[in-house]
From TrEMBL:
One of its GO terms (molecular function) is methyltransferase activity. It comes from Streptomyces shenzhenensis. Keywords: Methyltransferase, Transferase. The keyword Disulfide bond does not apply. This is SAM-dependent methyltransferase. Pfam families: Methyltransf_25.
Length: 241
């Protein structure tokens, strides 16, 4: 599951017993060698979809981690790219990965639930971060994103079709979420990381309540399921006013 450069079992155990912020500070140097990093095929598909929807001037990577989404934004934004994350360790790695060519890149330490920006962005993206927010936190998170977008700007993130109960991944993710809930019931501080708490229908409703108009774009690189539905989509939520 991990490459030789990835974290050891002991390091993962220490991270899992830490807070989310401190856990990611510890994991940051080896994060890109774990399955938790967004796969390159998803990043490439999103970059291609955004290129068709652009151009964009200024972009923000929400919960940027080590900067995989920043690389996507530098390909579709002309003027500037900003990454925000609350882990200093992840930002340190992202800074070492930033490319000097292309649009200016700024890294900011901050909490996505209280973004330190004015409406300065045409595009906000996020990759793999929503599992760190409880469902009750999503309305506030979406209002924060709305507040930093210019009117007409877009908030984009990929979503995969949920695995069916006949799939091994269904039971793997269910087991992971169950283990995390047990861990958080008996250990403090909590480590919020749930894979099955993000329900697309509820998320679309919350986005609309936050003042967005939503669009779903199939990512054709991942094909379709037997019922004809896309295996992966890009959600684009546009600020209406």
């Amino acid at each position: 599951m991990f490459s030789p450069e990835g974290p050891s079992l002991r390091e993962l155990a220490v991270q899992a017993l830490s807070s989310v912020e401190h856990g990611y500070d510890l994991l940051a140097p080896k994060f890109d060698h774990t399955p938790f990093r967004t796969p390159d095929d998803i990043l490439e598909a999103v970059a291609a979809a955004l290129a068709r929807l652009g151009p964009f001037a200024d972009g923000l990577d929400l919960c940027c981690g080590t900067g995989a989404g920043i690389d996507v934004l530098t390909r579709v934004c002309r003027r500037s790219v900003t990454g925000v994350d609350f882990s200093a360790g992840m930002l340190d790695v992202a800074g070492r990965h930033a490319h000097p060519e292309g649009p200016r890149v700024h890294l900011v330490r901050g909490d996505a639930r209280a973004l330190p920006f004015t409406p300065a962005f045409d595009l906000v993206v996020s990759f793999g971060a929503f599992g760190h927010f409880l469902p009750r936190e999503l309305p506030g998170l979406f209002r924060q994103v709305h507040s930093v977008l210019r009117p007409g700007g877009g908030f984009a993130f990929p979503v995969s079709a949920p695995p069916r109960p006949t799939s091994a991944w269904f039971w793997i993710l269910l087991g992971f979420d169950t283990a995390m809930r047990v861990r958080n019931a008996v250990w403090r501080p909590p480590f919020v990381m749930y894979y099955r708490a993000f329900r697309l229908g509820s998320v679309l409703d919350e986005l609309e309540r936050a003042g967005f108009g939503t669009e779903l774009h199939a990512l054709p690189e991942f094909g379709r399921r037997a019922d004809g539905s896309p295996r992966a989509r890009l959600v684009v939520a546009r600020r209406l006013s």
